[in-house]
Amino acid sequence: MDNLFSIAGKVTIITGAGGVLGGSIAASFVKAGAKVAATDIRREPLDARVEELKAYGSDVIGITGNVLDPDSIRQLADEVVKKWGRIDILLNIAGGNMPGATVNPDQHFYNMNIADWEKVTALNLNGTVYPSMVIGEVMARQKQGCIINVSSMAAIAALTRVAGYSVAKAGVSNFTQWLATEMAQKYGEGVRVNAIAPGFFIGDQNRALLINPDGSLTERSLKILAKTPMGRFGDINELNGAVQFLCSEAAGFITGVVLPIDGGFSAYCGV
């Protein structure tokens, strides 16, 4: 039974590994015995992350790469295959938001920064599609592999303010379902594609939205918790087990799923 949920020895590429979410999942994978190629566009946080990960296991490498540049991703894939012979898992973690792609309460939608909108939608959607194209080709040849994307509660229901991020994550959810179908029909049941949809976690990107300078909860936080049956924010580490499960043999008949990890937020109507 233990082997059913194991990812030991699985060759894994993790984009956005220099960030908080990517780093947390990378650490959990190394601890579980996976071989991890951590990648990020930023050299400094990636180097620090790799040193951190090597405390948990020796099968870790760091490769700088740009998820919006297919040639860069191809070089990454070639380097991983050269080192370990295959690619078993792709975790598309790279993403994020920008203030300019949001609409503040005292702002109009038509005043939103178009350049930031394009950056946010490209990073979150194309930054998922392009690695899936390049590394998915390797998996198609192998007829084996697992891709995990990151969607959001913003893709499930309209959230105020986060315009660009919401649109991109809705695209990620749809792309996950589309690619799961494409891979299974053309390359067999061995290539699976799923996504997680995290609920609300307090991190550097959203701290100012959720926590007042005096440490109290903002009005937005109170609204979120009122619609979360568990009545709390998530811990970033609570995503790790779900990702590992989706990558394991235990999830062998699961593809095209967008799994909410949200304390019940997406299930609760508010009444």
Can you walk through the features of this model?
The protein is α/β, with parallel strands linked by helices and 271 residues long. It has 2 domains: 2-199 and 235-259, NAD(P)-binding Rossmann-like Domain (Rossmann fold), CATH 3.40.50; 202-233, no CATH class. It is built from 9 helices and 7 strands, in the order βαβαβαβαβααβαααβ. Strands 3-2-1-4-5-6-7 form a 7-stranded parallel beta sheet, with helices on both faces. Helix 1 crosses helix 9 (240-247), helix 3 runs parallel beside helix 4 (114-142) and helix 4 (114-142) packs parallel to helix 6 (163-187). The longest helix is centred in the middle third of the chain and has 29 residues, at 114-142. The termini are far apart.
Write down the overall mean pLDDT.
96
Distance between the termini: 40 Å
Count of strand segments? 7
- CATH T-level topology of the largest domain: Rossmann fold
SSE series? EHEHEHEHEHHEHHHE
Task: Summarize the amount of helix as a percent range.
Answer: 40-55%
The CATH class name of the largest domain reads: Alpha Beta
- CATH homolog superfamily of the largest domain: NAD(P)-binding Rossmann-like Domain
CATH 2nd-level architecture of the largest domain = 3-Layer(aba) Sandwich
Number of helices: 9
The helix/strand class is alpha/beta
What coarse outline follows from CA principal-axis ratios? globular
